[in-house]
Design goal:
There is one protein chain. The chain is of the alpha+beta class. The chain has one domain: FomD-like (FomD barrel-like fold, Beta Barrel), CATH 2.40.380. It is about 25% helix and about 45% strand. Strands 1-2-3-6-7-8-10 form a seven-stranded mixed β-barrel. Belongs to the Ntdp family. Has nucleoside phosphatase activity towards nucleoside triphosphates and nucleoside diphosphates. GO terms for molecular function: magnesium ion binding; nucleoside diphosphate phosphatase activity; ribonucleoside triphosphate phosphatase activity. Its cofactor is Mg(2+).
Amino acid sequence: MSVPKPGQHIQIHSYKHNGQLHRVWDSTTILKATQNVVIGANDKTLVTESDGRTWITREPAICYFHSKYWFNIIGMLRNDGVYYYCNISSPFVYDEEEALKYIDYDLDVKVFPDMTYILLDEDEYEQHRREMNYPHVLDQILKNNVNHLLRWIRQRKGPFSPEFIDQWYERYLTYLT
């Protein structure tokens, strides 16, 4: 599998289980990329929804994708601290012709600067699970990965470690000069 290069600007595409395009982030700067991990950053990037609506992100964000875990993590740098938005999703794939891609499975975890968190969109997940006939094994994989993600949050592991977002944001700033 090819990987993007540090400094490269790529799009990020999220899909639904049925293959429908869900959301596109227009430009993310790659900070690190290996076969297993992609770390990127963006700020005030254009986001296009599946219905054509667009919006612009409000603050710098560090994005963490893994090829083995069924979640991705976005750390948003705000004036009062780092907020995380975690998508329960398929592992990423990188299509060098188009974008970094993943399937969004609706369940989200919002993490606040004090590291408290809430699980979001359980009703949306249940609706899509029924409508799109998620196999039982997929339902189990996703629920296991929610638990894995919550352990990372509680243990301050990976992107949740105190220095992670600051370190990668500093790297991002070197690409802006």
